Amino acid sequence: MRVLLLTRYNRLGASSRLRSFQYIPWFKKAGFECTVSYLIDSHELTNRYRDGQYGWGVLIRAYYRRLRALWGLYRFDLVWIEKEALPWFPASFERWLLSGVPYVLDYDDAVFHKYDQHRDALVRGVFADRLDRIMAGAGLVIAGNSYLADRARNAGAGWVEVVPTAVDLNRYTVKRTENNHPNTLQIVWIGTPYTSRYLNFLRRPLEEVGRRFPLKLRVIGGTMPSLPGVQIEAVPWAQATEVALIRESDIGVMPLSDAPMERGKCGYKLIQYMACGLPVVASPVGANCDIVRHGKNGFLANTPGEWAEALNELLADSALRREMGSSGRRKVEREYCLQKTAPFLEKLLRAAAQEADYVCP
């Protein structure tokens, strides 16, 4: 089966790497011929993290790449799209370009909110239902969690499935011992320069906890201002080192604000921590509530007081950390690993390509 895979980013972008690229070796073994066309390359994404936006030259090159890819889609049996093919283009134009070949949309983020909650009323008026119209014409919508799936169903998508973002168990192995610095307990967070803003929710809890325990916060891929009583270690993200950096830690954290965009997030940080055998503390937002079994593999914490209480309890009890970490690892093995999601996704894509009653938009 010939599949055209339209990703948002190259391998540096987490959503593309995890929702698309990590499946390609599996699909090749299954007989798929996968052709990948990214919208934004890794160099352009790195510059955006640094500068905060894309330049016009980057956007022109990106859309040129994408239009060239769409021009040849008739050669494929299926088009598999991460989020959307042409951001900010009229929905009718995108659906017209996709006509004639069944297409699948894959969402791990509530990107529809960048349109329907845009600060400009004119933008909202023109684009609010853009992704709803594209989802309604899809042969299949794959959502990373129930919040995204509900939006697709409400938009009129005829076939919606939930496939969580997953880790490869061959890469993620369990933390076997306490960290190499027994006099300092280590909390870990992983993300991007953009998402590190959520760490501000932890300033008060970490300052309080730091008065009781010698503490280090390891920030992978982001930044965090200094905190009294807490050692901050900011390290760059790299695929080759991310697992080891997590596994060396004692507790994984995922703070979030409770807002529409955040409710669409798929909790991948938590899955990474749990795959390494770490207990977790997370905000009770979106998919976090499905991943964390409160009191079993970690804690859900909303207020600064709840965060401090959860961290204090875990930091004070190494046996509890091991017990919750083992419970989290078992949950990942059952529900959130590539070894479970890849066979299911393969079946979905084959069925979408062969759907007899598919109607072109």
Please sum up the structure shown:
With 361 residues, this protein is α/β, with parallel strands linked by helices.
Secondary-structure-derived class? alpha/beta
Residue share in helix: 40-55%
Largest sheet: 6 strands, parallel
Strand order of the largest sheet: 2-1-3-4-5-6
What is the succession of H and E elements? EHHEHHEHEHHHEHEEHEEHEHHEHEHHH
Low-confidence stretches: 356-361
> Any idea of the CATH class of the largest domain?
Alpha Beta
Radius of gyration, CA atoms, in whole angstroms = 21 Å
N-C termini distance? 22 Å
Global shape = globular
CATH topology of the largest domain: Rossmann fold
Description:
This protein has 361 residues and is of the alpha/beta class. It folds into 2 domains: 182 residues, Glycogen Phosphorylase B (Rossmann fold), CATH 3.40.50.2000; 151 residues, 3-Layer(aba) Sandwich (Rossmann fold), CATH 3.40.50. It has 17 helices and 12 strands. Helix 5 runs parallel beside helix 8, helix 10 runs parallel beside helix 15 and helix 13 crosses helix 16. The C terminus is likely disordered.
